[in-house]
Amino acid sequence: MVIDKQLPGASSVAAAGVMNPVTGRRMVKSWRFDELSKFAEQTYREIENLLGGAFWYPKNILRALPTVLEENEWMRRSAFPENKGYFRENTDLGKYTGKVYPTHGWGEITGSARVGMPGLVQLFRRFLIGKKCFFEEVFDFEKISFEDGKVKYGALLFDKIVFCEGARLVSNPYFMYLPLVPTKGELLLVKIPGASFKKMLKNHLYIVPLEDGTYWVGATNHFEFKDAAPSFSDKSYLKNKLGRILKIPFEVIAHKAAIRPTVSDKRPLLGQHPKHGNLFVFNGLGTKGASMGPLFAEQMSAFLLGEKELDKEVDIGRFGH
Question: What range defines the domain where residue 69 resides?
Fold first, then answer.
């Protein structure tokens, strides 16, 4: 049974779903990317077959290299054996040629992909409703009680409850001790007439082509914020930044905000409550939910069934209580 009600700030329904093997200013390879990416593709392909939708889109990323130092670092990193297959030798701007302002140089990342997360969430919800195992309500912690080795939620009796509530974990009385840091991000959905961009582009912002011909543009990052609503200041910031990237006109068709569940050590939060053995958590995927979700969901399932232990790097036991 899935108990869920979509609330403001949910990040999965606003996410671009970018899987990027090369991240940060230092252009380091994303943690365990080879393993995560392979498992993610297999999983999303299986979900496509299950739900009859399309969610997995391999797409290269064009990355701006605005200085000589960054271009040199790109060349240096491309020679590392572990990066083989992720740095394209000859960058091809493709449809972006003549439509973006020049920068010192460009690099092209291969092995990257986009996951259509909002559509996946919508179809999976419909699938669960069809199976009569979806209950739409805001989870009420007052309804939890424990008896005879089971956990009750109102009149429902379960062996285990797994909390997957994203940034709302900070209000969960059982797991609020974990060091989850909600971060707010805002994005634009835009039309770019005559663009026909195929690849993703990263130049301060991401420009991500979507299947309906629009583009996801973002995102901002705030550790301090008042609410989950989109702000005028971030909309202006994103429009100005995009205007400095694109030479051609664009039209904003939507402005959205979401709250990401990030963790100080940038590792997920999986595990069992130290006192209430019926309660578990699966959270903290941050900005890398598309890539980390499948592998660790499989690992979590196996842990719940008593088939394997959790990786120490993701087990909440690393924080004590």
Answer: 1-177+264-321
At residue 321, the pLDDT reads 67
Reported pTM? 0.93
Q: Note the pLDDT tens digit of each residue in 269-296.
A: 999 999 999 999 999 999 999 999 999 9
**Residue 239 sits in the same domain as residue 275:** no
Residue 23 DSSP one-character state: E
Q: What pLDDT does 8 receive?
A: 86
Q: What residues of the chain score a pLDDT lower than 70?
A: 321
d(CA 115, CA 287): 13
Task: Please state, in angstroms and rounded to a whole number, the distance separating the CA atoms of residues 90 and 88.
Answer: 6
CATH code of the domain covering residue 108: 3.50.50
Neighbours of 99 (CB within 10 A): 16
The candidate with the shortest Cα–Cα distance to 284, out of 314, 311, 258, 240, is 314
pLDDT at res. 207: 98
The domain total for the chain is: 2
Instruction: Say whether 159 sits in a helix, a strand or coil.
Output: coil
The answer to whether residues 172 and 207 belong to one domain is no
Burial class (CB in 10 A: 0-12, 13-18, 19+), 71: middle
Residues 6+ apart with CB under 8 A from 300: 162, 270, 280, 282, 310
* 226 contacts: CB under 8 Å, gap ≥ 6: none
User: What is the model's pLDDT at position 155?
Assistant: 92
- At residue 39, φ and ψ (nearest 5 deg) are -70, -35
CATH number at residue 241: 3.30.9.10
Same domain, 52 and 199: no
Residues 112/209, Cβ–Cβ less than 8 Å: no
Cross-sheet strand order for the sheet of 269-272: 161-163, 279-283, 269-272
Q: What is the pLDDT of residue 26?
A: 84
Query: Is 187 within 8 Å of 216 (Cβ atoms)?
Result: yes
Residues 153 and 287 in one domain: yes
pLDDT in the model for residue 150: 95
